[in-house]
Each structure stands twice: as structure tokens, then as C-alpha cells.
Amino acid sequence: MKALGDEITAAYPDGELLVLGLLKGSFIFLSDLVRAIHRPLQVDFLVASSYGDAMVSSGMVRLLYDPETQLEGKHILLVEDIVDSGRTLQQLVELLGERKPRSLGICALLHKHIASHLKHPVRFVGFDAPHEFLVGYGLDHAENFRHLPYVASLQ
Ligand SMILES: O=P(O)(O)OC[C@H]1O[C@H](OP(=O)(O)OP(=O)(O)O)[C@H](O)[C@@H]1O
Ligand code: HPA
Ligand SMILES: [Mg+2]
């Protein structure tokens, strides 16, 4: 976490930084990550869901909470727990891009590298992940296992 925090700190030498956590999955990662970033920042959240109880994406990303914080002119760092099919990111990047941020960066704890066609690359990655369904440290299966203090595979 220190290395990722230092990388992010160095990447944003000036301007306002808004760290936007994508719930629910990012809640534990985000709380560790912001404590490893050593520059002023604000925190807000988006709530989106596409998996429900399944292990494959429904393809429909539902936005359940949209932040009221002004995004225009700020560096936005969107924080994801995991990038899998890339659909969630693709849809959110389009939506957030319309709000004229100064920059839009993506940070993910885990990246499965399935989505080779991602229009917006993930700039900050914690770990490359296997092509298995992972749970723990915020990640769920049917809302269970989020509390585990480690990441585990259900395969
Ligand atoms: O790259 P993708 O295939 O789009 O998958 C990644 C997204 O799917 C999961 O969210 P989910 O819909 O399970 O909601 P949750 O965060 O509330 O668990 C995960 O937290 C990511 O946000
Ligand atoms: O591997 C996963 N685990 C939990 N949630 C997910 N959402 C996309 N991929 C995953
Ligand atoms: Mg989920």
C-alpha cells in the first residue's frame, strides 16, 4: 500500500484531488489507500452494481448513488477493488468524463487483464489477478465474504 500511495502522491504534484471510491467493493481498499497518500485530497463515493449474486457481469451497470461533489476542474482518481470484464469502468469513465474533470485516473487493487480493449487504461494497479472469482478485502460473492482481511479464490 505504501508503494501505491507514494506513486499516487508523486503523480499529483498540484491541483485538487478527489478520490472517488466505487462502492461497495472498494470500501476497505479505499480506506487503506487514502491513508497512504500524502497530499491534500477529498473523498467521495459512487455506488454501482452489475454482478448482483452472480459470478459473471450482468452487462448492465446500475448507478445507485451519484456524488454531489463538483468534479469540474479537479483531478479525479476513481478507485475500484477489481477490474474484471472492464464494463463497469467503461461506463463510469464515460459518465465522469462528461463532468469536465481536470484529469481522470483509475486505481484498482486487482486487475484480471481480461479487458484488453479498455479505452481508459488503469493507471495505478495493486496486483495482477488470476482469472478466478475472488472474494475478501471488500470483494463479495452474493454480498458475503467482504469482511475477510485477505483476498481468496472461490475456485
Ligand atoms: O470489470 P467488471 O466486470 O465490470 O467488474 C468489476 C466490478 O464488479 C464488482 O462490482 P459489483 O457489481 O459486484 O458491485 P459491488 O462492488 O457492490 O460488489 C467490482 O466491485 C467492480 O466494481
Ligand atoms: O472476481 C471477482 N470477485 C468479486 N467481485 C467481482 N466483480 C468482478 N469480478 C469479481
Ligand atoms: Mg460484487
UniProtKB/TrEMBL annotation:
<keyword id="KW-0547">Nucleotide-binding</keyword>
<dbReference type="GO" id="GO:0004422">
    <property type="term" value="F:hypoxanthine phosphoribosyltransferase activity"/>
</dbReference>
<comment type="pathway">
    <text>Purine metabolism; IMP biosynthesis via salvage pathway; IMP from hypoxanthine: step 1/1.</text>
</comment>
<dbReference type="GO" id="GO:0032263">
    <property type="term" value="P:GMP salvage"/>
</dbReference>
<feature type="domain" description="Phosphoribosyltransferase">
    <location>
        <begin position="10"/>
        <end position="140"/>
    </location>
</feature>
<keyword id="KW-0479">Metal-binding</keyword>
<protein>
    <recommendedName>
        <fullName>Hypoxanthine phosphoribosyltransferase</fullName>
        <ecNumber>2.4.2.8</ecNumber>
    </recommendedName>
</protein>
<dbReference type="GO" id="GO:0000166">
    <property type="term" value="F:nucleotide binding"/>
</dbReference>
<dbReference type="InterPro" id="IPR050408">
    <property type="entry name" value="HGPRT"/>
</dbReference>
<keyword id="KW-0328">Glycosyltransferase</keyword>
<dbReference type="GO" id="GO:0006178">
    <property type="term" value="P:guanine salvage"/>
</dbReference>
<dbReference type="InterPro" id="IPR005904">
    <property type="entry name" value="Hxn_phspho_trans"/>
</dbReference>
<dbReference type="GO" id="GO:0032264">
    <property type="term" value="P:IMP salvage"/>
</dbReference>
<keyword id="KW-0963">Cytoplasm</keyword>
<dbReference type="GO" id="GO:0006166">
    <property type="term" value="P:purine ribonucleoside salvage"/>
</dbReference>
<dbReference type="InterPro" id="IPR000836">
    <property type="entry name" value="PRTase_dom"/>
</dbReference>
<dbReference type="InterPro" id="IPR029057">
    <property type="entry name" value="PRTase-like"/>
</dbReference>
<dbReference type="GO" id="GO:0052657">
    <property type="term" value="F:guanine phosphoribosyltransferase activity"/>
</dbReference>
<comment type="similarity">
    <text>Belongs to the purine/pyrimidine phosphoribosyltransferase family.</text>
</comment>
<dbReference type="GO" id="GO:0046100">
    <property type="term" value="P:hypoxanthine metabolic process"/>
</dbReference>
<dbReference type="GO" id="GO:0000287">
    <property type="term" value="F:magnesium ion binding"/>
</dbReference>
<keyword id="KW-0660">Purine salvage</keyword>
<dbReference type="GO" id="GO:0005829">
    <property type="term" value="C:cytosol"/>
</dbReference>
<keyword id="KW-0808">Transferase</keyword>
<dbReference type="Pfam" id="PF00156">
    <property type="entry name" value="Pribosyltran"/>
</dbReference>
<keyword id="KW-0460">Magnesium</keyword>
